Request: fold
Amino acid sequence: MTNEKLDIKLRQTEIEDLPVFFQFQLDEASYLAAFIPEDPTDKSAYLTKHTKLLSAPTINYMTISFNNSIVGSIVKFEMEREAEITYWIDKKFWGQGVATKALADFLNIETKRPIYARVAFDNYASQKVLEKSGFVKIAREVSFANARQTEIAEFIYKLTIV
Reply:
């Protein structure tokens, strides 16, 4: 099945979606994401933070659905006046082209360039998704990863054109 034929839809995230996203981050997949909240089990803190993000003017928070089920999220935010993206796909849907198709669709909606993404050095699947979408690895940084309780390398990717 090619990505173009996947029944992927993006829509603005609603408060009711947040508990689903919270559950996703509790999965062992958080190890690959690496940079998660200090206490990923604190549902109240998660919901409070993400509820505020929904109305922030510099954030574009979207829900990814696949065959009418919520399977992830994708978000554009700004850090030091630079646009960055992050996404999370439910582990059950890995390897099906969902992330690649959702990112391509999101980049058609969110047109600010340049746009950056960060990924753990050993999250090869996410690196591949970014590269398929035209992102280029531009830097390496070492940061503390809560999911691993140690410092790890993360790669910084940049997309300058659509």
Summary: The CA atoms of residues 6 and 161 lie 24 Å apart. The chain has a mean pLDDT of 91.
